[in-house]
Amino acid sequence: MSARSRSLPGMDVALRARPHEAAARESVYRPRHPVSLRLTLRSLGRGPYDPTTVWNDTGFWRTALTPIGAATLHLRTLSDGAIAARAWGDGAEWMLDAVPRLLGSDDDWSSLDVSAHPLLRDALHRSAGLRLARTDRVFESLAPAIIEQKVTSIEAYRSWRRLVAKHGTAAPGPAPSGMRVFPSVEAWRRIPSWEWHRAGVDPRRSQAVLTAALVGHSLERVCALPSDAEGLREAATRLTSVPGVGAWTAAEALQRALGDPDSVSVGDYHLAADVGHALIGSAVDDDGMLELLAPWQGQRQRVIRLIYAGGFTAPRRGPRATIQDHRGH
After folding, report:
1. What is the DSSP code string of 316-328?
2. Which residue positions does the secretion signal occupy (predicted)?
3. Closest alpha carbon to 33 in 99, 110, 120, 113
4. I want to staple 180 with a disulfide (CB 3.0 to 4.6 A). Which of 5, 57, 168, 329 is the partner?
């Protein structure tokens, strides 16, 4: 393969093959502002054993099913703050083109004012490299969010790992052992009922994933909508028009797929309590959380991410959600 170069905003790109990585493509992204890979990309992983994302001593690994095929992406931070990217697979070039958006190149924090709140002010100072990631893969963000509905994180992560490991495809290139690529919409549609059962996903959630898969390709069109408030509202409307997709699920998907700076996962088991304790020192319900976040309308997700980036969570004094496992029945 001959060397090629392209001019992209904020990127130096050289696509070239190495003898031991014949399909590798490479780029260097030089962001305008500091970017922390860990803070920016941590929300993309679905638990510590997610087969589509891996953190190791070489950096961050991620697989995706792009519009032009499967791909594996590897990112690492260079000494000057630039991000070195390598990608493999049919979708490698698409993945490299998407690196700036993935790392929040369009995510503008300049108008966020948290100066009146000490915790948020301190978190913003210590989390200067935090950006909202944007994957531009809608169904890839929606399916796991559906699987996470009304169950514990442990249950959802276990189900996600089993389904992707069995029905996804091998990660291209020299990816860490066990990495898999998100199944195609066609693959999701072919999963039989007993496989959902073995994965611990009840019929209500499995049917919602299958319904979303039927319109999976058309859902990707929301990526072309304007990234302003009106466009994001339209994106949420389109997602919640899918049976089985409510406001919480749509918010979880849009936070990752479009880097929505305002969506709030209303109905989350812990979120309201965490926000309440962070902002006023006591737990609140969803209505109380929305009232507390109202001063930052348009940027509420940024505030939430700051709370968690600062390592803050509310005391866990209430009853734990029961983990149910009916796979053997």
Report:
1. --SPPPPP---TT
2. none
3. 110
4. 168
Split at pLDDT 50, 70, 90, the class of 4 is very low
Is 163:154 a contact under the CB 8 Å cutoff? no
Residue 41's SS3 state is: helix
With a CB cutoff of 8 Å and minimum separation 6, the contacts of 322 are none
| 155 and 249 co-located in one domain | yes
In the sheet where 83-88 sits, what is the strand order?
4-8, 11-15, 25-29, 83-88, 69-77, 59-66, 53-56
The last residue of a domain, from among 257, 274, 298? 257
CB-CB contact of 266 with 288 (8 Å): no
Cβ pair 267, 151 in contact under 8 A: no
CA distances from 167 to 170, 178, 184 (A): 10, 13, 9
pLDDT tens digits for range 152-161: 999 999 999 9
Residue listed under structure tokens 């466009």: 231
